[in-house]
Write a structure and sequence with these properties.
about 300 residues; three-stranded antiparallel beta sheet; five-stranded parallel beta sheet; about 40% helix
């Protein structure tokens, strides 16, 4: 048949008019969409707007991040790990050899890029590698977002994982304070970590420092957290989806790699897709994953 197909109707008209009222580079949805999506996202209530053609105002919301039931790739990898992983022995060996170098006389941190298209198994590889470790270590893990990403989101997610804080956690301050109370090395920088987590803190520095000095203290605070972990034994830092890395998070990563002084180097595992090539300072090796079928065809 000839002609063009197009969507029409009330929902299309409403979406078009809501798009025209949304802030630039943001997503705005109706209360109906927000209800359908539910806890898959965190939401900011934008209140009601008047829309042409609608008798009543439209209650609108903005998604601000993954919600408490949104499943991360890391968690999916943990579930599928009940079936054995095959065909990644070479990559597992490379990762283990670099981890073993933490005990050698290595003076700089070990930065490994793991590059592959979506769905090839980056997270699964890393999960299996972590699961295979028999010696104790500290794990830090952060992840970026593909949409509406706040500044430093990579490090905010790392902090949430470290302190055991979930989105909209009513006990966030209690959990944060409990860790800080038992960690004297982090007490000085804790107000800047708390601010990143939007946890109330009355430290006067947050109010009176100018932007430049506050920014410097925030960089130091994130460095101090990673440094504290590194000085207490083997440490692995997993950074996922770096093809969506924002400039602020990149600056923090570069600062940490250049200024984090620990007895043993930290192993950074940086996961990203080919379309978002990441320039990491001092990168040790890039592991490019292809499909298992592609690998089999080479032999």
């Amino acid at each position: 048949p000839k002609g063009n197909l197009t969507a029409m109707g009330d929902e299309v008209n409403l979406a078009s008019r809501m798009e025209s009222t949304a802030e630039v580079n943001t997503v705005q949805v109706s209360a109906h969409v927000q209800k359908e999506c539910g806890d898959y996202f965190e939401w900011e209530d934008l209140g009601e707007i008047t829309v042409k053609g609608k008798k009543n105002p439209i209650h609108t919301f903005r998604p601000t991040g993954p919600g408490k039931i949104q499943t991360e790739r890391w968690e999916r990898a943990a579930r599928v790990s009940r079936s054995p992983m095959v065909g990644r022995e070479k990559e597992m060996g490379i990762l283990q050899s670099w981890l073993d170098k933490q005990s050698d006389d290595v003076t700089k941190h070990i930065v490994i890029g793991i590059k592959a298209d979506a769905g090839i198994g980056k997270s699964r590889l890393v999960h299996e590698f972590i699961k295979a470790q028999t010696e104790p270590f500290t794990l830090l893990r952060g992840q970026t977002l593909s949409y509406n990403q706040p500044l430093n989101w990579l490090w905010i997610t790392l902090l949430r994982n470290y302190f055991g804080i979930t989105p909209d956690d009513p006990n966030a301050k209690k959990k944060f304070d409990k860790v800080i109370e038992n960690t004297k090395e982090l007490k000085y920088c804790s107000p800047f970590l708390a601010e990143l987590l939007t946890i109330p803190n009355d430290d006067p520095r947050l109010k009176f420092l100018d932007y430049e000095n506050k920014h410097r203290e925030t960089l130091n605070a994130l460095r101090d957290l990673v440094q504290y972990a590194g000085n207490n034994g083997r440490t692995i830092v997993i950074l996922e989806d770096l093809h969506w890395l924002d400039e602020a998070s990149k600056e923090v990563l570069e600062f940490i790699l250049a200024n984090c002084d620990v007895e043993k180097p930290i192993l950074f595992l940086c996961l990203y897709r080919p379309e978002g090539e990441v320039e990491l300072p001092g990168i040790s090796e890039v592991i490019t994953l292809s499909t298992i079928a592609d690998d089999a065809c080479k032999h």
